[in-house]
Amino acid sequence: MSTTEPTRQQTAPTEQPARGLTSARPKRADARRNYDRVIAAARSAFTESGAETSLEGIARRAGVGIGTLYRHFPTRQALLEAVYVEEVERLCNSAAELARLEPWEAFAAWAEGLVDYMATKLALASELFDYVDRDAPVFTSCRASLFAAGGPLLQRAQAAGVVRDDVDIAEVIQLIGGITKIQGAEPAQIRRLLSIALDGLRRHPRDD
Amino acid sequence: MSTTEPTRQQTAPTEQPARGLTSARPKRADARRNYDRVIAAARSAFTESGAETSLEGIARRAGVGIGTLYRHFPTRQALLEAVYVEEVERLCNSAAELARLEPWEAFAAWAEGLVDYMATKLALASELFDYVDRDAPVFTSCRASLFAAGGPLLQRAQAAGVVRDDVDIAEVIQLIGGITKIQGAEPAQIRRLLSIALDGLRRHPRDD
DNA sequence: AATTATGTGGAGGCAGCCTCCGGATCAGGA
DNA sequence: TCCTGATCCGGAGGCTGCCTCCACATAATT
């Protein structure tokens, strides 16, 4: 198990993973305005044209110079991340509400939400999931957020005996990430594939 | 406009899908020699440095001019495909031998072989699977080969009642492809994730 | 209003993609 | 063997996108 030990920090004591993820926003008014403009332009550009969109195009779209874009996001990755992080935060917040459902239902719903969501942001997900477990600074904490959000749901399901207990949230997310990255498949089909994978995770009480 | 659309005549009037996968080889001696050189260089370059390798580098490596490379492979895709096709053919041929095993074992073994194999060729697979179901001329027939090889194994397993029968080979391959594309995971971990997914496909005779 | 810290934007250097065509090379006939 | 047309080679060059750098502009502060 080379990569970061997944089973480690699922429940990490991260206090406000939800807010502190986004890299420090600039302070001056114009800087902040441009920062937001770039993110907005990037989000729509990535969503529409995939992650291949040129950064120069995004800058143009945002009405700023290419230099400004690079000032805020020194790397293509950084920009991808900034956009991605926002989206993930939103997703994580949904986990809280799912706690009301039955263990399995909650877990499955979260997984489905993840895929569903990713389906629309495939461009981002596809590019970013490639860097999971790599030297991704900000992305690591983002992943931690996902863990923190999904981990409890998984553990609850495992405690209830409806999910095999030899998996951790990192693996589940990787599995889902892999399915998410299937391109050329209808959203409905992806959901079906997910349900198959979930079925592999499930453990029927009277089973075995 | 992400990718250019020179997807014109790469295909040519392909006769047989099984053998004619590789695009028509050139006729003149020197041309054919260079064609083979480029493919060889591309294979090792892609395997070593991932699919990001520059075409110019491949041309240099092959000892030919960049123009020559483009003459034979008008598109980056075309080159990727040419290399990929050869590999897939080899994989497909292995399916025949698996027919001796039990239905489930044969099916699972094939799936594992697929992942195993892809793991080494991740660079290729990752890039190419993105184009599944897209306007990929030659690649389509290549996929057909995969279907032809894996389909019977799946059907046999379904007939024996050990695999749920509401899936087809295309979905299975997509599922596996998705898992294959999980990066940052150890081969062993990927195999575990596959086994989970396979478990979702499996149908125990006394189950349900 | 003046000063200073901070931010802007695009020119420019670099690399990779791809096209184009003058010249080299091959194949077949005299 | 030599000639000749068909075929193929290869790299210069145009283009786009990545990223850096810095003279200039603007917000914040005094």
Walk me through what this model shows:
2 copies of one chain form a homodimer. Chain A has 9 helices and no strands. Chain A has helices spanning 29-49, 55-62, 66-72, 76-98, 103-120, 122-129, 137-159, 169-180, 187-201. The longest helix of chain A has 23 residues, at 76-98. With 208 residues, chain A is mainly alpha-helical. The structure holds a DNA duplex (30 and 30 nucleotides).
Q: Outline of chain A, from the CA principal axes?
A: elongated
Number of helices of chain A: 9
Strand content of chain A: under 5%
Order of helices and strands of chain A: HHHHHHHHH
Instruction: Label the structural class of chain A.
Output: mainly alpha
What composes the largest sheet of chain A?
none
Terminal Cα span of chain A: 28 Å
The strand count of chain A comes to: 0
What share of the residues of chain A lie within helices? 55-70%
